[in-house]
Amino acid sequence: MKHGLSSLLTILLVGAYFTLPTSAMAGPKPSPAQHAKPENEVILKENSAQEANLKIEPVAEVLASTAEPLNGKISFDENYTSRISSPVLGRAIKIQAQLGDRVKAGQALLTIDSPDLGSAVADYRKASADLDLKRKALERSKVLVDGGVVAHKELESAQADMAQSQAEAERTKSRLHNLGINHATFGNESFTLKAPMAGMVVDRQINIGNEVRPDAPTPLFIITNPDHLWAVIDLPERDLNKVSLGQTLSIKVDAYPDEEFLGKVQSIGTMLDPVSRRVQVRCSVESKGKLRPEMYARVTPLNMSQQKVIRIPNSALITEGLYSYVFVETSHGHIQKRRVTLDLQGRDYATIKEGLKAGERVVTKGAILINSELAAGK
After folding, report:
1. What 3-state class would DSSP assign to 171?
2. How many Å apart are CA 344 and CA 69, to the nearest integer?
3. Distance between CA 33 and CA 371 in Å, rounded?
């Protein structure tokens, strides 16, 4: 009896199994799997402090030169510059021009007590007196020769003496003229050094009581027109084909990183320096009253081949080993790290050769923080 009931129960269970729906046998349906976060992606929470500290901007194409900037330096335009030394030996007793002063041509710069000036004046007086004496002797010789008192050779000798004395008088007079001395200052040994041109005093290497010499290696004053400057390039041999006479240039300096100064090539050296293998190129530059001599400059030829390039600030770049990366906003709140290939990199900006397209939004501020968070989450 028990055996029969057991068999009947088994048959019922087997029948129920085959009559149940497939869904009932499979059990509860699992929930859909969550999408895996893409590699190298950071997801920002809505209105988070992290998002507020980021600056995300679209990249744009700009027209730029395909050549790297050349290294240069701002210097005086020698066509508008005068380096002034003393033509006489003496001692400085009065300084009439200071650094930054604007002076006119002929304006007094320095007064020098100079025994050399006294000697030059004495030489002129001696030569003038000797010339007067020889002139009178010549006149007497003419009278005596006409009267038959002396031989004709006496007249010739007087004429030779007169010519010699006249040459000496002219020499001493020219010496005084070169020093700018006139008859009114003959009794004074003070020599006044004057400005040969109008301009600004940009350097002074003299103090009261200092000795001055004509053969001094350093000029006492430098006067220049600050509106006229040169940009000087020590051009490497391999870059000689990048510049030509009359070529227009873009000049930038660290003091004004966002401002461009225009220039033009004025001269190119005719030979290379045998040691540095460089040639000097001088360019005029529109200083706008801002540039100063000895400033370092980055000079870019403008009329070379140009093309549209993607340009981003250097603050958007992350460098890891040999490669560069940026963070691109793929959608709102989703920031993805992407490798890019640089074309040229300057002081503030870099141009991208591969990896970005115009219009894509890039993290330009806070890229380092995002990179640190991404590294910590791996």
Report:
1. helix
2. 10
3. 28
Angle at 62 between CA 322 and CA 307, to 5 degrees: 80
Confirm if 56 and 336 have CB atoms less than 8 A apart.
Answer: no
CATH 1.10.1760.20 at 70-79+227-305, yes or no: no
Distance CA 84, CA 173 (A): 23
Q: Which alpha helices (H) appear in the chain, and where do they start and end?
A: 2-19, 22-26, 49-52, 115-146, 152-178, 367-377
8-state DSSP, 291: -
CB half-sphere exposure, 23, CA atoms < 13 A: 3
Domain with CATH 2.40.420.20 in the chain: 43-65+307-377
Q: Rounded to an integer, what distance in angstroms lies between the CA atom of residue 351 and that of residue 374?
A: 25
**Residue 261 in tokens:** 């100064």
Query: Are the CB atoms for 129 and 137 separated by under 8 Å?
Result: no
Blockwise average pLDDT, block size 10, the chain, 378 residues:
49 48 47 54 74 82 71 92 90 92 93 80 82 85 76 80 86 76 62 91 93 91 92 89 87 88 92 90 90 91 68 88 89 87 79 86 86 75
- At residue 98, the pLDDT reads 93
Question: Which pLDDT value is given to residue 2?
Answer: 44
